[in-house]
Amino acid sequence: MMAGRGRLVPCMCLGLFGVLCWVWVSFASFPDEQLPLEALDAVDRAAFQPQSALSEVHFASISSYAGPGNTDRRSNKELPILLWWSGGLFPHFPGDTERIDCGTSSCLVTSNRKVQLYKRTASIIFYGTDFRPYEAPLPRLRHQTWALFHEESPMNNYFLSHGPGIRLFNYTATFRRESDYPLTLQWLPSLDYLLAPVTVSLDEKNRLRKEGLAPVLYMQSHCDVPSDRNRYVQELMKYIQVDSYGKCLNNKPLPEHLQDTSTATGEDRSFMTFVSRYKFHLALENGLCPDYMTEKLWRPLHQGCVPVYKGSSVVADWMPNDHSAIIINNFPSPKALADFLKHLDENDDEYAKYIEFKNFKSITNARLLEALETREWGVNDMSKPNYLNGFECHVCDQENARLAAERAYKRAPTKNKPPQPKMANNSHMGCPLPRPGYGDVKDLPADDEWLQIWPQDYWQSLDQAEGLESLIRHNESDPSLLWKHIQSIAVSRARGKH
Q1: 322 CB contacts (<8 Å, ≥6 apart)?
Q2: C-alpha to C-alpha distance for 51 and 17, rounded to whole angstroms
Q3: What confidence tier does 18 reach under pLDDT thresholds 50, 70, 90?
Q4: What are 28-75's pLDDT values in tens digits?
Q5: Residue 3 — pLDDT band, cuts 50, 70, 90?
Q6: Which residue among 1, 21, 113, 158 is least crowded, i.e. fewest CB within 10 A of its CB?
Q7: What are the DSSP calls for 335-379, one per residue?
């Protein structure tokens, strides 16, 4: 590596789009111990001193996170700092700063942005939904890494699904199993949740069917989404009866006592019993991406209903067995799916095979069992850290290891290797271009509302990712210049130079 004030440090590898990747791309040559305070505004100068914004009196040790390998005895003034850029996600209360004692090391964590440029601030943690390239903390300093926490839908920020966007981050916690700290089963509380007895028996469901209840339930009120699920359901409705209670394709009113939104989001018992009467639940995610699976999938399994699923393209990797869910992508058309659902509706023995996993001996998926057994974070489990605390400890341990390797290399470069730059890639997110829920995109009319929103949002996010990468390469300190860089890239591309 070459080092010098204002120089760029390349990591010699090519990303998905063939663009040179950069890690800790821009930097300033600050003294080892502190920033050049004369360069700071007088009002903010004190914020960069350890005893002001990071006064020890404000810190509390979170001893419950300490692992048996943690022998860190340093004082708060000696620990690296992790800055949660999205303050609303700061996983500590009260206050805005804490000391954390993790598996092998300790750190200070804060949501106080005044420490952004402080030399001890080793990493900045971002929440993916809130990450906006025109608000990024620039210039990007060489001594800081960036960490990404993003457990929500890919539709929340397609910036992260493009190579130039995701490779800005050194550590990731996403729903993808390939991320550094996977959150794939975040919506599955436990194995017991899956094994819970069925809420409504098959005999009762058959009785309700004879009284006119549809075999299939659809309940969605978020209608304009990139998965375009309504278009598929609308076609499916031509071939099989579907009761739709939400705002999307509504054809039945909810009972008045269930119309409060909180009953659906909080697993209210009366609400769960109401929807459990159905044999099949249409479980269609709002965004499509490998390993992105939500309560839409796990709740029907918990209740003892059969999810008819479209979302993660690799959902079969996580199912209790081969007869747990009906995967829409396995059928050539909505009519073919409808015919299969009718067959199961009329054959109790065949339908019952999809509930056999309720017996532990029928769970054959070793990957699922191992993941539930070994994950260090818990869901509604006070004996384990939540995944926010877990990820910040992951970053803390990684950063302490990196800093220790840097010190060792500086002391004896012939005996020790420098720490290798770590960078995320498209396998950490990499969600595909949204496609119509049914039919081909070329057959959609030009004024189709979905067509005008989601494909454009996806490609505009690529523009922003390339623009931010350009800002960092040019060592810019003003994120509002993003649009200028996007325009420059577009002009270069039009001239065949990009």
Answers
A1: 316, 364
A2: 45
A3: very low
A4: 323 333 433 333 343 333 333 333 333 332 444 444 445 667 889 999
A5: very low
A6: 1
A7: HHHHHHHHHHHT-HHHHHGGGGGGSGGG---HHHHHHHHH-SS-S
Count of C-beta atoms within a 10 Å radius of residue 365: 17
Q: Cite the DSSP H helix spans in 202-256.
A: 202-210, 229-236
How far CA 285 is from CA of 157, 217, 220, in Å, comes to 15, 15, 10
- The three-state secondary structure class of 309 is strand
Unique residue bearing structure tokens 């436990």: 190
**Exposure on the CB side of residue 197, measured as CA atoms within 13 A:** 4
Q: Indicate the domain borders of the chain.
A: 8-184+382-446, 191-373
Q: 444, exposed or middle or buried, with CB in 10 Å at 0-12, 13-18, 19+?
A: middle
The alpha helices in 119-179, defined as continuous H runs, are 163-166
Q: 3-state class of 122 per DSSP? A: strand
pLDDT in tens, 67-109: 667 889 999 999 999 999 998 899 998 888 999 999 999 999 9
pTM given for the model: 0.86
Question: Cα separation of 27 and 350, whole Å?
Answer: 63
- DSSP code, position 417: P
In terms of DSSP bridges, do strands 216-218 and 280-284 run parallel, antiparallel, or are they unpaired? parallel
What is 191-373's CATH number, 3.40.630.10, 3.40.50.11660, 3.40.50.150, 3.40.50.410? 3.40.50.11660
Structure tokens at 342: 């009718």
Match 């069917």 to its residue by tokens. 209
d(CA 291, CA 311): 8
Is the CB of residue 151 less than 8 Å from the CB of residue 174? yes
Separation between Cα atoms, residue 480 and residue 77, nearest integer Å: 34
For residue 392, give both structure tokens.
């910040």
Angle subtended by helix axes 334-345 and 229-236, to nearest 10: 60
